[in-house]
Design goal:
The complex is a heterodimer of chains A (410) and B (106). Chain A is an all-alpha fold and 410 residues long. Chain A is 80% helix and 0% strand. In chain A, helix 4 packs across helix 5. Chain B is mainly β and 106 residues long. The termini of chain B are far apart. Classes of the chains: A mainly alpha (410), B mainly beta (106).
Chain lengths: 410, 106
């Protein structure tokens, strides 16, 4: 019974924890501009993140090494450092977007200025990281994130024209659309980046070390990933669908978090909106915790500092100091008045650009018998692993030119 | 001299012709004491061409990546420390009768 509960908890946490500010904003923006003609990207993205998370979790459980320890060992100090700088900066950008997302969600809930909420959000994230046990912080935010299921409910309450939605899934452009191919592909990469964000993998593999995973835990982790993430992606698609039903016909382009909420409020009134807001706060807060921890994880693992929440802060001082500095920088950037939604839109694209840097070393080490023994990748995993390597490299290389041609999708 | 100064240094043969750069250093572990001692240097045509672990013959998966990385590092060879005449800040010089060994590991 306990095992079943543990399994259910893991899956529910993975579902609720899948969506973050990047998915909220990008799914909604894409739904409001392209209907469901880009939903296929979310599906490809979730297969990719399942593959990547599953490999990095297995490497962590068997070898005891988290992602950046692997990168440093395999790529060497110099190339590893370039990799660290890129990954760390993009993670910091994502962290900033998530903290901004908490502030915007709380603003929607209270109508107090987000500037007032930014320091509150940053301090709350720090306090939780400092005081709360790893398993609790992961499970609570994951479970509360399930409130986003209200988007799936809203799809049915809105009584959509299913035939037209189905047509969009099959790439028939919605009649209102007037987007150029460059914009279409730019947002395809953004959506891909929002599904396959590198921090998810730093967090996942470091979490495996935090929770002392061994060979025995591999089954549970596989179920969490292979069931939880695809169901989480359904929430992402539901957000896109609600935007496609309500916003696209009126040609309202999503530029703020309140517009993401609009279709839910129209479908289910105040109560639905409150539930969705709870989901926003949980999703952004959970992701803020994960990105903040990831900043500490990546730096500490590269430099060989002691790290982990399973150690007392005094025993992992540099790890904790890194996280505090990152939160201060993130909050500082937000206080200058930049729009968190815009930071989010850029952060998902840069995530896609940096993805090969972390993906390739993990793919190589997941095949290394010295590290993995008999738990190396099988043929099927390697086949998909290589297919995704090609997709990831193409997305990474195409991102900057498309950003320039489409003027960042504007 | 520390290891990072040795890596990327140009390698010259006895008459001063450039034959490559140091891409890696091979160590051997002493079974009894557990100490590592330097066995030799790996010399490649280009500084960026490293095996990323595929110098071990047993590592062959994923096949495409293994083949690509081996192809990029083609022409690499191992020179034992005994065949190195001098290591100076501007380059590594080899003896006249140095021998090229395969960089592969069993």
């Amino acid at each position: 019974m306990k095992a079943v509960l543990g399994l259910a908890l893991g899956v529910l946490t993975a579902i609720g924890g899948f969506v973050d500010i990047g998915d909220l904003v990008t799914s909604s923006v894409v739904g409001s501009r392209f209907g469901l003609t880009l939903a296929w990207v979310i599906i490809i993205g979730v297969v990719g993140i399942c593959l990547f998370a599953q490999m990095s979790g297995r490497v962590a459980a068997i070898s005891g090494r988290a992602t950046f320890e692997i990168i440093r060992e395999r790529l060497g100090a110099r190339v590893g450092f370039a990799n660290l700088v890129a990954s760390f900066l993009i993670n910091l950008m994502t962290l900033t977007a998530e903290v901004g997302g908490i502030a915007l969600s709380l603003q929607l809930a209270t109508s107090l200025q987000p500037t007032l909420w930014i320091p509150v959000a940053a301090i709350a994230v720090w306090l939780v990281i400092w005081r709360v046990k790893f398993s609790i912080l992961e499970n609570v935010t994951g479970l509360l994130g399930l409130a986003l299921i209200v988007f799936a409910v809203a799809v049915f309450l809105l009584h959509p024209d299913w035939q037209s939605l189905g047509g969009q899934l099959l790439l028939q452009s919605p009649s209102q659309g007037s987007e150029t191919p460059a914009t279409y592909w730019y947002f395809a990469i953004a959506l891909f980046g929002s599904a396959m964000t590198p921090y998810e993998v730093f967090f996942f593999s470091s979490g495996a070390v935090e929770e002392h995973w061994t060979r025995k835990d591999l089954g549970q982790s596989r179920v969490n990933v292979l069931v939880g993430f695809p169901l989480g992606a359904l929430l992402s698609i539901a957000i896109s669908v609600t935007a496609a039903i309500v916003l696209l016909p009126h040609q309202i382009q999503v530029t703020s978090l309140s517009q993401v909420l609009l279709p839910v409020a129209q479908a289910g009134g105040t109560i639905a909106a409150i539930v969705a807001l709870l989901g926003f706060v949980a999703a952004t807060f959970g992701a803020a915790l994960e990105t903040t921890l990831s900043s500490g994880y990546s730096l500490a693992q590269y430099f060989g500092w002691s790290w982990g929440k399973f150690r007392r802060p005094a025993k992992a001082a540099r790890f904790h100091l890194t996280m505090i500095i990152c939160l201060v920088v993130g909050a500082g950037v937000l206080l200058t008045g930049v729009d968190p939604v815009q930071i989010t839109e850029y952060s998902v694209v840069f995530s896609a650009i940096a993805l090969p840097l972390t993906y390739l070393p993990i793919l190589i080490v997941a095949n290394d018998r010295d590290y993995m023994g008999d738990k190396v990748n099988g043929r099927v995993t390697n086949f998909f692993g290589l297919v995704f390597l090609v997709i990831i490299v193409i997305a990474s290389v195409a991102a900057i030119p498309l950003m320039i041609i489409s003027a960042a999708g504007s | 001299m520390i290891l990072s100064e040795l890596l990327q240094l140009p390698v010259l043969d006895a008459v001063g012709t450039r034959i490559g750069v140091v891409t890696d250093v091979r160590f051997a572990l002493d079974h009894d004491s557990g100490d590592a001692h330097m066995l030799g240097v790996l010399i490649g045509r280009r500084s960026r061409a490293t095996f990323l672990g595929y110098e071990r013959k047993t590592e062959t998966a994923p096949a495409l990546i293994a083949r690509f990385l081996r192809w990029r590092a083609r022409g690499s060879f191992l020179v034992l420390l005994d065949d190195v005449r001098s290591i100076e800040p501007d380059g590594v010089r080899l003896r006249t009768d140095y021998r090229r060994y395969s960089p592969e590991l069993p």
